[in-house]
Amino acid sequence: MLASRTRWVIPAVEYEEAERLADLCGIHPLVARLLLVRGYDTPEQIRAFLQEDGGSRHDPYLLDGMREAVETIRRALQEEKHIRIYGDYDADGITSTALMTWLMRELGAKFDTYIPHRVHEGYGLHREALDKAKQDGVDLIITVDTGISAYEEAQYAESLGIELVITDHHEPPERLPQAAAVINPKKPNCSYPFKQLAGVGVALKLAQALIGEVPARFIELAAVGTIADLMPLIDENRAIVREGLAAMQRSSSAGLRALFQVAGLEGRAITAGHIGFAIGPRINASGRLTSADIALNLLITEDEQEAYELAKELDELNRDRQRIVDETLEEALQMLMDRYGDEANLPPVIIAASGHWNAGVIGIVAARLLERFYRPTLVFTSDPETGLSKGSARSIHGFDIYRALAECADLLDHFGGHQAAAGMTLSAERLEELQERLNALAREQLTEEDYIPLTEVDLRCGLADCTIELIEQLERLAPFGIGNRSPKLLIPQAAVKEMRKIGKEGQHLKLLLSDQTGLVLDAVGFGFGHLQAHIAAQAKADVVGELQVNEWNGMRKPQLLIHDIRVNHLQVFDWRGLKPTLQAAVAGVRHMPGLREQAAFVICDSSPYWIQVIEAMFGKQRILLLQDDGNLRPLHSDPSPQPYTDLILVQLPHSSETWKRMLRRYGSQLERLCIWLADAELWAAGCPPRERFKHVYAHLRQQRSWPAADTRWFRIISQRTGLADADVAWIIRVFEELEFVVREGDRMNYVPKPVPRELSESKLFTMRKRGQPLAESLLLMTTQQLTETIYEMIQSEVSQAG
Questions:
Q1: 20 to 30 Å CA-CA from 517: which of 10, 114, 397, 624?
Q2: pLDDT in tens, 398-424
Q3: Which of 223, 217, 245, 251 is nearest to 236 (CA)?
């Protein structure tokens, strides 16, 4: 067996309904199934979702406050009032400010822009910024991506004689600010049909209300901000992003073209993934580390050279950001290990805090720690202006971090956020109490299973379904992102026909999957290289991944990008290639990839040769003696031996019946069976000639007495006789059985005048002679034959029991 890394959530599917929808909409049945499980259950919904023009768009005047905003802005334009666009320092806020800049230029406005500094000013409207606006002669402030919580600041602006138009998309508080206009689709009683616009999406709606049809650059900016702010790519967001990505293929924005160039995306088809992982982080780096104005100036310039220089500056800032994140993450990990010693000792909720960490990266570090440990994580640094601890939180499915913080509100100076992420400030001396209370809440709300990450599977399919046609139809569901994730397919019980590591350091895994009809599919798992030792040849694996087209030398064929993998049956690992020498045992088995703590070593006789080797490396408690009736007896005295899930069959069983009895008795309980059979070659060669027995006997007679546990003695005789160490050990066991030597305490002694006996009187001797055909058979079997033989033996026992 091989456990999956995550918990798989596999939806139930109404197959007949999916077939009906596929026929009505002219789409692949698997695509219909996927859309059905995602809630698109009518032909109208499916057709709207798949529209090439992006689908849903809504009247901007359905937004409560839009008419008042348009009237206020038009009046300010007519009266040539000084307008200030007030934004935020993240990618959503920066693209919102850039979009409004282009809008103001279009309208011929007298205006400027202002984005507060993340460290020195913090988020949102504040009095000092309003005082500066008054000094600068500003008459009207239009906020973008901020302002919905600025109740007192709005009052202060009014007292200064500054008009406010607030546009925002964050959760509104109970008490809304008083302003000339407040636009937010989440406002109570707002009739706008889609509530999940980004801040830049709200700014786009304001632009549409003011000028009607907007230029392509507006849509491009809205698409970038929507993706970067992790908004769900459904409904109008889907329309914005689809249209924006299409426009980006020949972007009208000098700034975006320059970003594509420095990010290595020039000439490529831009996807939502490129924006989320390459463009968004570079825009964000500006506000995280220095001033957001660098990114803003890039997005509003028309000068190609200036754009390229600014893009290079952002690229360098992003590299700095990555370095700072890596350094901070390393410090945080070391801090946690110093405090808790081991990952197993980590509390339900992790808190890491330092006075010198950069506030612009603590959210990223919290997300990285969550990825590493999969538990709610808070990372804090000190705010130099207030002396308070400023934190960023990321949480897991099942633990609403915003609600948890709300229950600890008495400890916090400020907090905000949602189920999965939050920000907060508090006095440093309250951090320990905050962690205690959050841990108490987590213990109440979370089970052990909740600490295993989730993988949401969309479809079950076979290898025959994995075609270029299906991939092309699945691509119609793009753009993929939050709310419209890339489809994950489950291919059950695929045979692992071939397997190898790839990558410079072998860190990745490539599989060739096959089914009963002989169809095959390439599958690649990035970061899965270590699993090669945990997947046996001929294993049947359940594989979850994303289908993609692999193009090579003009050939196009389907390929699966692996997300997770599991094997739900006993796996048989063929270790017969290991040499049976003591040295090979130490160098080979001890470092054998895939050897687990749950592994026990099965020996077939109590020769000190094998016991000493295994005990020295792994301890006596992991040695089991196979008896003739197929039972496994622990050599240690623990009356309740550990239930081992892995068995390593070190020696050849004495007979095929013993072999069958063991497999039938324990096979259904095991996860792994490693077939080493270290002495099989010796058994296959038959018993040593009688002359060799005489040679060994002569050496024992000369030695007279020796330590029973001293395996070096075997080696000395081996060197003198030309026998293998294991053969020497076996011959001495035969002599002991015939009472030519005796065990007395911890020593073996030669018997001077033993009773004459024939070798054939030894049970060990006769068993080895009888076992020769079994040894030959097992050595000659291919891995597939060996595996099938073992499965047949186990299955026959299951069938008999049934």
A1: 10
A2: 999 999 999 999 999 988 877 888 889
A3: 223
